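Let's sit down with a protein and look at its sequence and fold side by side. Which protein we use is up to you, so please pick one and set it down. Label the sequence line and the structure token line clearly, so we can match residues to local backbone shapes. Go ahead whenever you are ready, and we will take it from there:

***
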Amino acid sequence: MSKPSSNASATPLTVVELRGQPPTYSVNAATLFRGLMDGGSNARILLDLAASNEIELHAGSQDWNDLLWLISTALKESGAAYSGSEYATLRNNLPVVFH
């Protein structure tokens, strides 16, 4: 399994802005992983803003797979593991729309 790309910036999507709709940003697996693991990072700020409905984050299904790879690799190094249901709970609780 190859390592996901490390382009970690959130880039605005070109979307028609509707009144009352939060701005939409696209994020990748590396950004999500950094946001989950580093509480002081800009990526964490993005997750916090999305959780409070200030912005909307979008990612592709491949980004979810890459995030799983990053998390499982980090857990493997510490000798821990997540179950399938724990990954499902994580996906449901992340403030990200996966496509």
